[in-house]
């Protein structure tokens, strides 16, 4: 039984705080290969709930789940030039089986566009086959140089959706539908507010015509790209010859989209809601929503009896864990907190004398002493309140730390302050690179709409008048 | 829109029949790398339901889901000698990232015993941490020379459970608990009867002390190993130094088990229940349980109206698909059959004149004409009957094709007839190999109990008196 160690305060060293939280929250262990992770029950449980609820949302849109191979032969991958250039330095390459050398290199998928393209080529014949709306839950490998649990690891889990449409308008619309779905999902399930927008040409996905993104703000002010949706146009369908016969018997290439969210979302949860006691898991995706702690059970047999009966009753509705071990009360409470369980119920002899129990909220640490009979009803309200509170705190932070500037000096100052900076910007690649080199900030997105007025203004670098406003930030 | 092609009759060429069924049932496409598969919605949907229901069963036993890395460094894999020898020729080996050569070879997991061992070593300290009961859903890669969809492919999906216990009795018991769980699961969800037994020393898992298996009989008489549960004893814990302090403050190594089922189960479903029209999916794991077909909708607007209302009503309870396309009625029925939907409801103008619709069972092809109002109630009964019928047919086949012999001549004759053969056998490796070379049959298991009397008898090869009866068969 491991002792709980101290977590470095986040004000003191945010990066160290993050590492402490993931290690101590029963979230991860490091894999034997550098940059790989073990998802322990407390993090994998969140991911399973994300899968469950996203699947429900996807189903409403007619998404069908499939599973494509992990392994991609070199010749297939190399077909799409821009795509291979984007991934080449990160490709895990299989050259041997046992002692035997293969005739052709095989890559472990970093993403599956080319696999889906190959599948669609052999599936699509007529406009009657369209649209095809497929999704897969899968692991992908990208050999990143610097790694960070959940945020950037050599293997991560994600879902990647891939669709084919018979016209560009429908495909573009679907690209936007998916980014909206993600934004709503993060709000309603993860209590994370995001900014929705389009990536600049420099930051878009290799092989896409345009990329939409949702950008979240972490507690240190840095941005985290939490999901993307790409309009691929006919880039892959022309290269891979995915054509169909339309209703007039003419041939055209399909219009495609792809979209995904990954286990980065776990990092987003930690850095949006976490505090100096560890992770705080939003109730809807918490593997354990309520911890019931038996305290001083030896002093009064009623403690165990009430705990068990409450556990049984609440388990019908919530995900509940009962800690009836002989660990000391302080340890039990700390363990529940460090693992981020949204609500714990402490059942001890003193409260029971008055037929009461104590509820402790993980987000506010507020203690609520209640008659036993009221618990069931109140748990519902409290879990709801916790979600709302987490969301509102994060939304307030995002709103107050998004700063509009009209010149490069102010821009640099605000970036230094770890703000999201909204600035008029022409989006030329060279200038974007220069800003990155000088300030560490990258363009996060061209927001679709913001709660503040836009107007024509001179670009912060080239001074030409532009109506394009872009959000910059340092990012994970 | 692809035309439906003919399926080769199974009596004519079983292997060709199988290939036709998997290709035409919207089940698979071949991946671009030889020996890899695309799981299309109709097969991946079955796998998702298997996952869902197995997760429910696992939960009852306190199993926690986790996810471990795909990639294993060579030094870790090589620690357990017997284990590495078992897998070495099939190991997909990463030597490069992009153009850069790695310092150490990295293997794509063929199974995860060594990864779990590494995790447990860093997790377990005290008997209070035990038992640990983990499971992961994952893809694994084994570079098989000959491949066959679902049965033997270079990548497959599975769950692998891994546990640590503080004593051998509990671990042995857990090994048996899991194999029983699998046997019940196959019966109740997949309608597949199995024989439960122990593998011979020659056929056990590399690195295990003993291996339990469930063996199913396919329609051609060959065996399919459908799930295994291994008692690993302290083999891995001693090699990887997974020790714990017991209640007397003495150190011991943990006792381990591992157990799994894979996407082979999809092959088992096809070859247990399929017929010359294609796959028949057992109702409980059918992605679509009921197909509603609108027929001649143009002739009477009531067709669409009734179809939609029935679709809406049944969707609350069942997984239902509505085909309201303008394809011809024969095509719609064939498509439903070839995809193995257990029940279809045909809604056409003629039946509707009498307020009736036609239900067609996929298993018996029986047509049932019913008043619309009775459909909802009857669907439940019919789906239940289909499951029972599929199971009973398979059970009868298994029972009548399991033959007991007491000499090697009869043994060879029965194996040639594609029977399961139960014979007294001493389980010496050399003789087991000889039988395999001569007859193509392998030992499937030493059954725990059978519905027929056992007695001491001379071994079919060495003639020594033995009480050990072993089942042999040709196998997938």
Automatic annotation (TrEMBL), chains A, B:
Q: Which reaction does it catalyse?
A: tRNA(Pro) + L-proline + ATP = L-prolyl-tRNA(Pro) + AMP + diphosphate
Q: Where in the cell is it found?
A: Cytoplasm
Q: Does the keyword S-adenosyl-L-methionine apply?
A: no
Q: Name one GO biological process term.
A: prolyl-tRNA aminoacylation
Entry's Gene Ontology cellular component terms = aminoacyl-tRNA synthetase multienzyme complex; cytoplasm
The record's top EC class is: ligase
Q: What is its EC number?
A: 6.1.1.15
InterPro entries, from UniProt? aa-tRNA-synt_IIb, aa-tRNA-synth_II, aa-tRNA-synth_II/BPL/LPL, Anticodon-bd, Anticodon-bd_dom_sf, Pro-tRNA-ligase_IIa, Pro-tRNA-ligase_IIa_arc-type, Pro-tRNA_ligase_II_C
Annotated Aminoacyl-transfer RNA synthetases class-II family profile domain residues? 35-282
GO terms for MF? ATP binding; proline-tRNA ligase activity
Q: What is known about what this protein does?
A: Catalyzes the attachment of proline to tRNA(Pro) in a two-step reaction: proline is first activated by ATP to form Pro-AMP and then transferred to the acceptor end of tRNA(Pro).
On subunit structure and binding partners, the annotation says: Homodimer.
> Hey, which family's this protein in?
Belongs to the class-II aminoacyl-tRNA synthetase family. ProS type 3 subfamily.
NCBIfam families hit by this protein: proS_fam_I
The protein, known as? Proline--tRNA ligase
Q: Identify the species of origin.
A: Mycoplasmopsis mucosicanis
